[in-house]
Design brief:
Chain lengths: 214, 480
């Protein structure tokens, strides 16, 4: 009986207690330790990911540079929607992200920002869309963005303050970014699999704090 | 030879009704301006008892909010010409008839996968234009027209694809479907000859003597005894279309429906000609000869109605309309040859470039141009000059020190005490200094020592000490 109903043998079924190994392959992050914890072994394509961070300057954006470099090399666009500051060309270039793949959108209103993110994800042109939303966003809109990411097979990353962790979210993956001893710490409160509460520690390339510590 | 005829009954009414989802009571009027009569009335007007042939005054008494539009035969002819242009996507041989079109389709059957599929595409297309047509299929253009006209009058007919079957299919049809002069029709009726069968059976020399060689020639062309060549319609070099709305439209949403009709028509026409438009003028006509003009421009020739509509919608959303809209007009001065985008034989990279260009157009249409830009390296060591918006750069890689992911638009002065600068806690200098001293040649010199600094919570910043201003610290970047 158990041989027949063994859920591990049914495609598309994963048990809550284990990280889903059958997830479609993700985009390697460039951090082997992090890839181990992400279902599919990297950042998921066609799904909404949330990065929740307690402050700024923790390396929350550079964490994605490895994946962005790969997406750019595939000839797909990276949309930066409503970033809090200018993405700085020399930093992207040194991380190997082709600059001509980047498209910066600075919408005037919250509504325009949501619309732009939706358009970018659905267009099929974008391999990744990173967006920052200044106002509270309701579940229905996040669900729409999740579906947009699915239809455009794009990596969709929403950056939010840590306080948003208590709100329900349709994102498939939620990461909590912190800092300890000059290094970057990552917890995974939501993924296809058990949440990861003991943080993993990463060195962020391009961030000299880690180099100084080494 | 295989012909499809399209008959558009009540064309004057259709031209008004296609521009909205639910038309108000509406009549098209004709006759002398002192005493106009109702030429045709739509369903909403007929419900109130309005009938064709009534005086307009009587019709207005029956239906309170009746809109009366004088018949515009020039507009009808233009609409038929545009339909002919649209139909050219199905075959190169399209010719105009007084109330419809005939298409020779034998050469297109293989391309469309058979008669059934071609007819389905044609019928579906006409419906999406908001038009109502009846169809006739026959080996001669005249017979195809007769079948289509019969269907328009509610007479059941079956199409016919081979010449030998044609006489049998025509046999029972009434002769008034043929466009003979009224006198010929009357004489034939007096003789008891009412059906095509009877006319075809008459002795030829006698028929020609009595009704003239013209009438006999028409009968011969109908039955396929003599060839009936048609002159294909040649569309003009530029594209123009106008659609009058049945009622004044306030706001943008009410315009989108008729605009989709116009753009769908244009898409078919452009597809038939293997063309696209790179610039398109959309004119909204307001009462009193005023109009609002929107110039739409695209990175590459386009023709897909959905895409152009999405661009137009965003542009309309940002445009304040001074008055209600009474008519829409599209004008494309130049048609360019266009690679079809909807097919999938484009290479992956090319397809991505196309969808990227379209995304940028869509975003810029709504947000405005300066809000959408690319980034590139600039050949300057001053950090604030180390990037510039858009266009590829001569420098492909960065060879300097560590650079933050975020750059502040303008450096921000930091609070600095005796122990050094602070930002949400004391800042520890974890790397640096990196001296940047340049720009003396253009009047904006910088002379700074850059450090990487972290506060107790681990937030890491890129800050500098202004060398010409002792004790002054600035925040310039964030290692996000």
């Amino acid at each position: 009986m158990s041989a027949v109903l063994d859920p591990a043998r049914v495609p598309g079924v994963w048990r809550g207690g284990e990280v889903d190994a059958a997830s479609p392959p993700g985009i390697p992050s460039g951090h082997a330790r992090l890839d181990l914890e992400l279902p599919g072994g990297g950042w998921p394509r066609g799904a909404l990911t949330e990065i929740l961070h307690a402050g700024v300057g923790l390396g929350e954006v550079s964490l994605l540079f490895g994946a962005l470099a790969r997406i750019a090399s595939e000839g797909r666009t990276i949309a930066w929607i409503n970033p809090p500051h200018l993405p700085y060309a020399p930093a992207l270039a040194s991380a190997g992200v082709a600059l001509d793949a980047c498209l910066v959108v600075r919408p005037a209103t919250h509504e325009d920002a949501l619309w732009s993110a939706d358009q970018a994800l659905r267009s099929g042109a974008c391999g990744a869309a990173l967006f920052w939303l200044t106002e509270k966003t309701d579940y229905a809109w996040l669900r729409r963005l999740q579906m947009a990411a699915e239809s455009g097979k794009a990596l969709a990353v929403l950056f939010r303050p840590l306080a948003a962790l208590s709100q329900a979210s349709p994102a498939h993956l939620r990461l909590e970014i912190g800092s300890r001893g000059g290094n970057l710490t990552v917890k995974v409160p939501k993924r296809r699999g058990p949440p990861l509460h003991t943080p993993i520690t990463l060195r962020t390339p391009g961030r000299p704090a880690a180099r100084a510590a080494a | 030879m295989l012909w499809v005829a399209l008959e558009l009954p009540e064309l004057p009414l259709q031209l008004l009704e296609r521009a909205s989802e639910s038309a108000p009571p509406l009549v098209v009027t004709e006759g002398p301006s002192q005493r106009p009569i109702v030429a045709c009335a739509n369903d909403a007007a007929q419900v109130s008892g309005v009938r064709e042939g009534m005086t307009v005054a009587a019709a207005q008494a029956l239906a309170g909010s009746l809109r009366c539009v004088p018949r515009d035969e020039a507009a009808e002819h233009e609409a038929l010409e545009r339909l002919a242009g649209w139909a050219a996507q199905f075959t190169s041989t399209v010719s105009l008839e007084p109330t419809g079109l005939v298409l020779e389709i034998s050469g297109s059957l293989r391309l469309f996968g058979g008669l059934g599929k071609l007819l389905a595409a044609l019928k579906g297309g006409v419906r999406r234009l908001g038009l109502h047509a009846t169809f006739g299929i026959a080996p001669t253009p005249l017979a195809a027209r007769v079948f289509a006209r019969a269907e328009a009058r509610g007479i059941a007919v079956r199409g016919c694809t081979t010449l030998p079957d044609l006489p049998a299919r025509l046999a029972e049809l009434p002769l008034f479907l043929l466009e003979w002069p009224g006198r010929t029709q009357e004489t034939l009726a007096d003789l008891g000859i009412l059906r095509a069968r009877d006319a075809l059976a008459l002795p030829r020399p006698g028929f020609a003597q009595r009704f003239g060689p013209e009438a006999l020639a028409l009968l011969d062309r109908l039955a396929g005894r003599v060839p009936d060549p048609r002159v294909p319609y040649q569309p003009p070099a530029r594209y123009k279309a106008r659609l009058e709305l049945p009622a004044e439209a306030d706001g943008v949403e009410a315009i989108l429906f008729p605009l989709r009709r116009l753009l769908t028509e244009m898409e078919g026409t452009l597809r038939g000609r293997g063309a696209g438009v790179q610039g398109l003028d959309l004119l909204l006509e307001h009462p009193g000869k005023r109009s609002t003009r929107l110039a739409l421009a695209f990175a590459a020739p386009e023709r897909e109605a959905d895409f152009i509509l999405s661009i137009a919608r965003e542009r309309l959303g940002r445009t304040a309309l001074p008055a209600p809209t009474v008519a829409l007009r599209l004008v494309a001065e130049r048609l360019q040859s266009c690679t079809p985008r909807e097919t999938s034989w484009l290479s992956g990279r090319e397809e991505k470039a196309v969808s990227r260009a379209r995304l940028i157009e869509r975003l810029s249409a709504r947000l405005g141009n300066p809000r959408v830009f690319g980034i590139a390296l600039a050949n300057d060591h001053r950090p604030e000059r180390g990037w510039r918006p858009s266009n590829p750069s001569p420098r492909s890689a960065w060879d300097g020190g560590a650079r933050p992911a975020w750059l502040l638009n303008r450096p921000q002065r930091l609070v600095a005490g005796a122990t050094g600068p602070s930002l949400q806690g004391r800042l520890d200098l974890v790397a640096g200094p990196e001296r940047i001293e340049t720009g003396w040649w253009d009047g904006e010199p910088v002379s700074r020592d850059y450090f990487v600094a972290a506060n107790p919570t681990g937030e890491t910043y890129w800050i500098y000490r202004e060398r010409r201003e002792p004790g002054a610290w600035y925040l310039h970047g964030v290692f996000a």
